[in-house]
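Standup notes
- DV: blocked on the single-chain target, sequence here:
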Amino acid sequence: MAAPTHYLKKRDTLWNPRASKSELSAHARDFLRQERYSDALDFFQHAQDEQGLAEIKAYALQTGDTFLLGRLYRFDKALVTEADWKKAEAHNEKIGRPSMAELARKQYAPPPEVVKKQEDLGEKPIGEL
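- DV (later): unblocked, structure below
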């Protein structure tokens, strides 16, 4: 069975309460073959397919795709570590995508108000320890 291509069919398949996890995973794998990673992630998430989620994460880290990493992080914060964000940052710096590197950096850097509060207390910011 091929993955649905029309957005309404995709939505109906994804949210069908009678859809089995194996059916959703099969659609996700079909989307992977088509290099439709965001769609594949949708279906892997609904199927709770840990292996599929790991494949999406591997692809995101290989390409520095901060969008996919962010979606994985919102789905389950345990899926994306600080080291993963740093790897995505380094990859994006290397290939000349500074805005994506900055986006990855913001995911693990302390918020500015934390740094300011530390400075007010006479402490060094975390990055300068």
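- Follow-up: The longest helix spans residues 50-63.
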